[in-house]
Design goal:
Blueprint lengths: L8 E6 L21 H4 L26 E2 L10 H21 L7 E5 L8 E6 L4 E6 H6 L3 H16 L2 H22 L4 H18 L1 H18 L4 H5 L19 H15 L3
Parallel strand pairs: 2-3, 3-5
Antiparallel strand pairs: 1-4, 4-5
Length: 270
């Protein structure tokens, strides 16, 4: 599909990418409540925008994976088969678990080869969930199981409501730190700066928890679509390991693999 009339992606509707601390950071205007600092997230590069594609409830066909450069994907691009097979399952999980909300997932590829290997979930300006893969990640993946696990992980962020939960936490942090700043006599730019810090710390506090939740649910989605999530999660073994850093955005790779294995064991009745 050749793209024209792209839609905007909201800077407040962005989850951390699959891979931490890679790539340039998104630069966004400072928001009054101090949320911008929380939403400038490591590991993500937001492309200029992607069109909304077909209407709500539709399932992408092989021609409906969108691209940032407006050129159709090659017929043998591995993401096409994975997207076609995974998307109906993702939509089913979304409707069962989310109940209310937009489950018309759009899959897109950022063809800028200068961007590092990564994937992230965001919302367009109509509230439609968008899952973006960089071309570098597609090239790095060794098999469809890895792509399916990544897609399931990113879809899980939306299904689990991580974006609004992250926004709520950031807002709370900005308000609480703002109150403390005002009591200390801060005003103007100084107050705005501490609100940004408070928003960022509050949102970051739950980032690891959200990543592990997305790993578990993503494994369940991939398994339901007939993929091997353990084989898919082996993708982590080729990524930089963030370890267990204080206030880091992502858990250690070993912890993530353990969560996936435990999820598969539970689903298999073991």
């Amino acid at each position: 599909m050749v793209l024209d009339s792209p839609s905007k992606i909201s800077p407040l509707a962005l989850m951390p990418g699959l891979i931490p601390a890679l790539g340039r950071l998104v630069r966004m205007p400072v928001l009054a409540a101090g949320l911008a600092a929380a939403m400038v997230l490591s590991g993500c590069v937001v492309p200029a925008g992607y069109p909304t594609g077909s209407g709500p409830g539709s399932t992408p066909t092989r021609q409906e994976v969108l691209t940032s450069n407006g050129k159709p994907l090659a017929a043998n691009d591995p993401i096409l088969d994975v997207a076609a097979r995974m998307t109906p399952v993702v939509i089913r999980f979304c409707r069962e678990k989310l109940r209310r909300g937009n489950c018309a997932f759009q899959i897109a590829v950022d063809e800028d080869r200068a961007q590092p290997a990564n994937a992230f979930q965001t919302l367009d300006d109509n509230g439609r969930p968008v899952i973006v893969f960089t071309r570098s990640l597609l090239n790095l993946a060794k098999n469809p199981d890895e792509l399916a696990f990544v897609l399931g992980h990113e879809a899980a962020h939306h299904i689990a409501g991580h974006i609004p939960r992250r926004q709520d936490q950031a807002m709370t942090g900005a308000i609480l730190v703002g109150i403390l700043g005002q009591s200390a006599g801060l005003t103007g730019e100084e107050l705005k700066r501490v609100q940004e810090i408070g928003a960022g710390l509050a949102a970051q506090h739950y980032s690891k928890e959200f990543e592990l939740e997305a790993d578990a649910l993503g494994a369940e989605i991939a398994m339901a679509a007939g993929y091997d999530p353990i084989r898919g999660a082996n993708f982590f073994t080729r990524l930089p390991d963030p370890g267990d850093r204080f206030m880091g955005s992502h858990p250690a790779n070993s912890e993530r693999l353990a969560v996936v294995r435990a999820t598969v064991k539970r689903l298999a009745g073991g």
